[in-house]
Fold this protein.
Amino acid sequence: MQVHYQVMSWDFETDAEYQKLLDWADEFVRTKVEPMDYVYKNPYDKSDKEAVAALKPLQKEVKDKGLWACHLGPDLGGPGYGQVKLALLNEILGRSSWAPIVFGCQAPDSGNAEILAHYATEEQKKRYLQPLLDGDIHSCYSMTEPQAGADPALFETKAVRDGDGWVLSGEKWFSSNAPYSEFFIVMAVTDTEKSTYHGQSMFIVPKETPGVEIIRSTGAGPDTSHQSHSYIRYNDVRLPFDALLGEEGGAFAIAQTRLGGGRIHHAMRTIAQCRKAFDLMCERALSRRTRNGKLADLQMTQQKIADSWIEFEQFRLLVLRTAWKIDKYQDYMKVRKDIAGVKVAMAKVYHDIVQRSMQLHGALGISGEMPFSSMMIGAQVMGIADGPTEVHQVTVAKQVLRDYEAGDERWPSAHIPTRTAEARKLLGVDK
Ligand SMILES: Cc1cc2nc3c(=O)[nH]c(=O)nc-3n(C[C@H](O)[C@H](O)[C@H](O)COP(=O)(O)OP(=O)(O)OC[C@H]3O[C@@H](n4cnc5c(N)ncnc54)[C@H](O)[C@@H]3O)c2cc1C
């Protein structure tokens, strides 16, 4: 058995010029953006005029600093820093639910913009991509269905050719931000004879199109302030032929392009949440007393801190190395294993650190006066959104096994008697 590991050089320094921008972003988010989280509710809700008025000048500061839409290349109005630098920035932005919008890189718009840039016609780009990039509108990605999420082979929403266009019908579920979006990108079956990989297509559906019905929207967890994941019915929605995004039958490939980027960007922002929970844990350990001294003096607290620090650092390094690989290969398919591994680790590390920190905060920790319960839901979300943990574990295992081959059925390659006999023969040792 011989496994070939890649050789790589190592450099953990951030270049000095970019570090200055990160320092600026850190201070800016801390002093001007994080306060938005405590005062305003939904960053996507443009009907909140007071919030929009507070947001605009902040977005201008970011644009003036050259940090607007850092996930995009210069051709689309971003600086094209690449994924490693984006990761370092997202580690800051992930602290605040408003920061991604202030910096023009919020999900799901960021992923939608990427696929529009990749697959849209010039006309579609003018109509949908440009206002999205300018931060003037929001968009929705409508793929999951009430009866099927993790397995796209079970999707039923369909689009059929009829006269001068398509007729779209079916139901979608958990289409985030639909109530605040100008258009939806909808995945639909267009050829039942073909496999999932070639029988589904993407469509751009303006929200006001007759037949688009938002049945209701739900939030995640008990917080009712963000009821933005929508259950949508497409009631024989008539679309022109040019509503098709990319090639007919190309939806699966488009979805893969979009979700690869989306997953790693979520992980970058999750680093910020893990760090926040960890910082609170350490602060609490040093502040809270029992009769035997501070919580920090108790070994079981020390174990929580040590385990959390180690898991956090491992996770962060995995995210950064994956970002580095995306920059290197410029091909998400070549980084599938890494992204799937990050996706699995993200939910677990986030959950475990938050759980320990919450525990150290006692009753206060579980109360609505601390952020832990929404962080716990956030960790659970990371194990489901963009595909459940189990599906990504399967991807990791399958990809890992590609680098191995079967050995002898009976004796493994490290079987000592077999290896000893081989070694004796090789070395010419008789006894
Ligand atoms: C906060 C949030 C935002 C979302 N936003 C969007 C959005 O904007 N647009 C959109 O289209 N979707 C969105 N989703 C939906 C998301 O993509 C799906 O929830 C996800 O793909 C899982 O689908 P499901 O919920 O139907 O779970 P199911 O497919 O029913 O799976 C349920 C559980 O079954 C188990 N399971 C499923 N498949 C396997 C398997 N192959 N092996 C082992 N176990 C398995 C897992 O434990 C899994 O969690 C969002 C979800 C969340 C939580």
Q: What stands out?
A: Strands lie at 139-142, 158-162, 165-176, 183-189, 200-206, 212-218, 229-240, 244-245, 289-290, 293-294. The first strand starts at residue 139 and ends at 142.
